[in-house]
Amino acid sequence: MQTLEALARDARALALGEPVPPSAAEAEVARQLQICNACRYCEGFCAVFPAMTRRLEFPKADVHFLANLCHNCGACLHACQYAPPHEFAVNIPQAMAQVRGQTYQDYAWPPALGALYRRNGLALSVALAGGLALFLALAVALRGSLWSVPGADFYAIFPHNLLVGLFAPVFLFATLALALGVRRFWRDVAPATSGAPLSAPATAEATHAVLRLQYLDGGHGDGCHNEDDAYTLSRRRFHHLTFYGFLLCFAATAVATLSHYLLGLPAPYDLPSVPKLLGAAGGVSLTLGTAGLWRLNLRRHALHGDAAQKPMDRGFIALLFLTATSGLGLWAARGTPAMALLLCLHLGAVMALFATLPYGKFAHGIFRTAALLRHAVEKRQPHPIGLGAD
Fold first, then answer.
1. TM segments (predicted)?
2. Cis peptide before 85 (omega within 30 of 0)
């Protein structure tokens, strides 16, 4: 009901040509940032606070930009003299996380599917993967080959063209949905971040920050926080394993596709082929990274982040873990009676992952990259309020 009322309020404001009023979460971020702007103790912690000092007010677009620039490292919460139980109740990581979740819904494409962010939980993600795997297993069982020894070629179970026909539309839709969503986000935050176009130095700096996960170091290199005041680099390391493991798996798929269509070398591939090396390294890295992130998520401090988004976070971690482990298991089971069943499980996990990419935690990497690009552009412009150079 509150969502319908908010949509009606926004539609009425747009129809009358009035600014769309901020949501409660956006207003709370603006309130806290006004306090932070007066204190500035955390100015060197991450990109958020230098960007904050370039503003005296925090309208909607600025709040969306800063919220997605935040990496939720927790350093500012543990350093803040106004954090709960102080009456000011400043909790930047939690307030920013709530707005990030809102931006994912607001910028979802098609807009009607934005509500899936609230429902994309652990149970739904695993159930979707299991349901798709069961459907595929039933299809194979009807042919009488669910538990047999078909050889090492999984295309004997599902023909190549059938797999392309199933997965290509889902992947292309997910890519399109993410691209259109971040395009709208970019158009809204660009005027609030100087409006200047991208430059080569700004792009290089933002790329460096993304690839190194620079802002998970706590601002001092010792790491961020997780369950207590202790510094830890675990989140950064497990994020790296997950991020690069995903990229290696994607690269393995891309190389295999090129090998199939351009070189006439169809799967399956054996060591030491490039697709197999990339896929094996990516699968191991993704397994270790997601297992570590799951453990950290379970132990995360209650004041870090938005508790309402934990099911979405864990659903995404679980799908990545299931995709990686089922892929490695499928490799190990080639030529055994278990291959067909493991292939159905792996394909179900991959299909569920693709289907939920635009409406799950994966979106945070896309929106955060866009925010880092705008920050790198903005910081190269003259300071707008004359309070000093960056």
1. 122-142, 162-182, 241-262, 274-294, 315-333, 339-359
2. yes
Average pLDDT (46-63) is 94
d(CA 186, CA 188): 5
CA dist 256 → 204, 205, 279, 325, 346 (Å): 29, 32, 10, 19, 17
**Which residue is associated with the tokens 């986000």?**
185
pLDDT at residue 1 greater than cutoff 50 = no
Q: How confident is the model at residue 173 (pLDDT cuts 50, 70, 90)?
A: very high
Alpha-carbon span 299 to 319, nearest angstrom: 20
Phi-psi region of 108 (alpha: psi -120 to 50; beta: other; left: phi over 0): beta
What's the total number of domains in the chain?
1
- The answer to whether 314 and 126 have CB atoms below 8 angstroms apart is no
Containing structural domain, residue 138 = 119-191+206-358
70, 46 contact by CB (below 8 A): yes
d(CA 340, CA 150): 8
Query: Is the model's pLDDT at 149 over the cut of 90?
Result: no
Spatial contact of 337 and 34, defined as CB atoms under 8 Å apart: no
Would you call 224 helix, strand, or coil by DSSP? strand
By the 10 Å C-beta count (0-12 exposed, 13-18 middle, 19+ buried), 95 is classed as buried
Task: Report whether 97 contacts 309 (CB < 8 A).
Answer: yes
Higher pLDDT, 17 or 110: 110
Instruction: Tell me if 375 is assigned to some domain.
Output: no
Structural domain includes residue 63 = no
Task: Give CA–CA dist 34/29, Å, rounded.
Answer: 9
The angle formed by the CA atoms of residues 231, 233 and 235, to the nearest 5 degrees, is 110
* Within-domain flag for 126: yes
How far is it, in rounded angstroms, from Cα 8 to Cα 4?
6
User: CB neighbours of 123 closer than 8 A, spacing ≥ 6?
Assistant: 311, 315
Residue 181's Cα: distance from chain center in Å? 13
Considering the domain boundaries, does residue 23 fall inside one?
no
